[in-house]
Amino acid sequence: MTRYVSSCFFTLFVLFLWRVEDIADACKCSQPHPQKAFCDADVVIRAKVVGKNAVSNAIKYDIQQIKTFKCPDQVIHAIFTASSPAACGVTLKINKEYLFTGKLETGRMYVTLCGYNPPWEDLSAAQKNSLTHRYQSGCDCKIIHCTSLPCPISTTDACLWMDWGTNNGQNLACIKSDGSCAWK
């Protein structure tokens, strides 16, 4: 009987390890360029996290909205995210300010790990300036993220982003001028 129990335990252990790997790999995405995140979002705001509550299978962060960069005429009082990083949930710190880019669904703002939600203090001066002056004007352009060479680009309405391990490209904005898009 002990051999049978040991065999069952070993089988369950192997299955558990296999399942843990699946869960750990559940949320895979690369960080978008700040302009792409801005253009793809329904809502872009600067806000301070003031509270946190578990709501069914989500986390609700109560926020104090400081500035609106892009939003359909409403004040956001809470941000919702999945309950775990494996499900692309964002972990935020209370009393810290963030830039939030998210989707608006049934009057609620949702953010994910695949979005762009950095602490406000981590943004460069160029990024903060682009939030009010440049990103919106470049939403007609596509930002193509190049992860390996060669990086072909065959259209004039796109900018090639090759930010391999540096943050330099995140300080630029892809703007359309004279019919074609270019980094500025």
Automatic annotation (TrEMBL):
Stated name of the protein: Metalloproteinase inhibitor 2
GO biological process: negative regulation of membrane protein ectodomain proteolysis; response to cytokine; response to hormone
PROSITE patterns from the UniProt entry: NTR (PS50189)
Annotated binding of Zn(2+), by residue: C27
Zinc-finger as UniProt keyword: no
Protein keywords: Disulfide bond, Metal-binding, Metalloenzyme inhibitor, Metalloprotease inhibitor, Protease inhibitor, Secreted, Signal, Zinc
Location within or outside the cell: Secreted
Record-stated family: Belongs to the protease inhibitor I35 (TIMP) family.
GO molecular function: metal ion binding; metalloendopeptidase inhibitor activity; protease binding
Organism of derivation: Hucho hucho (huchen)
Disulfide-bond pairs as recorded: C27-C88, C29-C114, C39-C139, C141-C181, C146-C151, C159-C174
GO cellular component: extracellular matrix; extracellular space
Signal peptide positions on this chain: 1-26
Domain NTR: 27-139
Domain of life according to the entry: Eukaryota
